[in-house]
């Protein structure tokens, strides 16, 4: 349904992934209740409990009991934020969905701006752009910059620098994303892949106040690797070129040795150069096998065709209820 053709008040589903966030949940709910009174569109919240082991689920149950617009889906274990977002979209009934974090790092005041661009300017996707310079450590600043550069160099659909999961999706985009079968869900890449008319809005991202970040450097590194491998075959193809260059260099070197032997006779064999050559090539072969392994491993996961997530418990208004 296009936003322009809506005659009734649109419904916007807020999709909120939650993983061990007992400190943030009550504050978030209070903030939303306060804020949504001023909004001229309807909202529902779909919390996705991503296998929390603290009191998060109890808090969500209570909230859903108390407020009709709050719903939740609870996973049987931790499946990761990307899958939690996908599950939220699967259960969203809205004419549009906005995905946001529960830690209030995504300012609620930006949501009406998203809706305005969607309703009045006809954009299908409105994404928040945060300033990458405002991150906590220089290492995070440098590595996130590097990631966007590398991704945009290698993948067909470029990512806007600083555009994350905080964004509004029109129903068309939600349906396109939900129809994607892959298990490896690097959402930022999927948003770019589906296309549609999109626009970015700048926002200031405050530091997290309650609880702590669920992403350490090791998780972020694996996340980046997932993104690159899922959206580009460059790491795989690169080895053909490397192989070609090495073969040419080896041929030139071999020719030089033959000429040198012909001119000045048989020399003492070059132990050092031989060992260097062998070790260098050995290292390169292991590296290239490792890259093939990255792709093969993902292929293996995809072919098993397992469901994306397992729901242990939920309380949602199904699509049928709404009609
Ligand atoms: N989250 C999740 N599953 C995970 C890790 C995180 O659902 O495995 C949620 C988390 O509860 C939060 C959002 O994803 O609502 C963003 O996480 P966080 O604030 O820790 O990330 P950061 O802001 O540090 O990138
Ligand atoms: Mg956060």
What are the main properties of this structure?
single chain; 323 residues; alpha/beta; Spore Coat Polysaccharide Biosynthesis Protein SpsA, Chain A; 2 domains; 11 helices; binds uridine-5'-diphosphate; binds magnesium ion
Please provide a brief summary of the model.
It is built from 11 helices and 8 strands. It has 323 residues and is α/β, with parallel strands linked by helices.
Write the layout of secondary structure elements.
Elements: E1 11-18, H1 24-36, E2 42-49, H2 56-66, E3 70-75, H3 81-91, E4 96-99, H4 111-121, E5 125-130, H5 138-154, E6 163-170, H6 171-178, H7 187-194, E7 198-203, H8 217-231, H9 234-264, H10 271-304, E8 311-315, H11 319-322
Helix pairs in contact: 5-8
The structure holds uridine-5'-diphosphate and magnesium ion.
Residues 101, 103, 105, 208, 213 line the site of magnesium ion.
Describe the model.
α5 packs parallel to α8. The two termini are 15 Å apart. The protein has two domains: 11-216 and 309-322, Alpha-Beta Complex (Spore Coat Polysaccharide Biosynthesis Protein SpsA, Chain A); 234-304. The model has no long low-confidence stretch (mean pLDDT 88). It is elongated and about 90 Å long. The chain is 50% helix and 16% strand. The protein is built from eleven helices and eight strands. The chain has helices at 24-36, 56-66, 81-91, 111-121, 138-154, 171-178, 187-194, 217-231, 234-264, 271-304, 319-322; strands at 11-18, 42-49, 70-75, 96-99, 125-130, 163-170, 198-203, 311-315. The protein has an eight-stranded mixed beta sheet with strand order 7-5-6-4-1-2-3-8, with helices on both faces. α1 (24-36) links the parallel β1 and β2. With 323 residues, it is α/β, with parallel strands linked by helices. Uridine-5'-diphosphate binds next to β1 and α3. It is found in: Cell membrane. It is a multi-pass membrane protein. Belongs to the glycosyltransferase 2 family. GtrB subfamily.
């Amino acid at each position: 349904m296009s936003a322009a053709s809506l005659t009734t008040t649109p419904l916007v589903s807020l999709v909120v992934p939650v993983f061990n966030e007992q400190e943030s949940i009550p504050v978030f709910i209070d903030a939303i209740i306060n804020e949504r009174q001023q909004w001229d569109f309807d909202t529902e919240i779909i919390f996705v409990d991503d296998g929390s082991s603290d009191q998060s689920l109890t808090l969500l149950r209570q909230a859903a009991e108390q407020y009709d617009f709050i719903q939740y889906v609870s996973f049987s274990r931790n499946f990761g934020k990307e899958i939690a977002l996908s599950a939220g979209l699967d259960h969203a009934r809205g004419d549009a969905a906005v995905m946001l974090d529960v830690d209030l790092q995504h300012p609620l005041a930006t949501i009406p701006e998203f809706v305005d661009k969607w309703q009045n300017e006809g954009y299908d996707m409105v994404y928040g752009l945060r300033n990458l310079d405002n991150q906590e450590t220089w290492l995070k600043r440098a590595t996130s910059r590097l990631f966007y550069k590398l991704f945009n160099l290698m993948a067909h659909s470029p990512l806007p620098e600083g555009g994350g999961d905080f964004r509004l999706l029109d129903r068309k985009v939600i349906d396109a994303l939900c129809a994607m079968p892959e298990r490896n869900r690097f959402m930022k890449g999927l948003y770019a892949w589906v296309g549609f008319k999109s626009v970015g809005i700048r926002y200031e991202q405050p530091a997290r106040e309650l609880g702590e970040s669920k992403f350490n450097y090791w998780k972020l590194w694996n996340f980046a690797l997932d993104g690159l491998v899922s959206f580009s075959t460059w790491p795989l193809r690169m080895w053909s070129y490397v192989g070609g260059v090495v073969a040419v260099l080896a041929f030139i070197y071999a020719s030089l040795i033959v000429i040198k032997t012909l001119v000045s006779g048989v020399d003492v064999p070059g132990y050092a150069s031989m060992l260097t050559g062998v070790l260098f090539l050995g290292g390169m072969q292991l590296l290239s096998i490792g890259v093939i392994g990255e792709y093969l491993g993902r292929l293996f996961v995809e072919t098993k065709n397992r469901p994306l997530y397992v729901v242990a418990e939920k309380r949602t208004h199904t699509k049928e209820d709404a009609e």
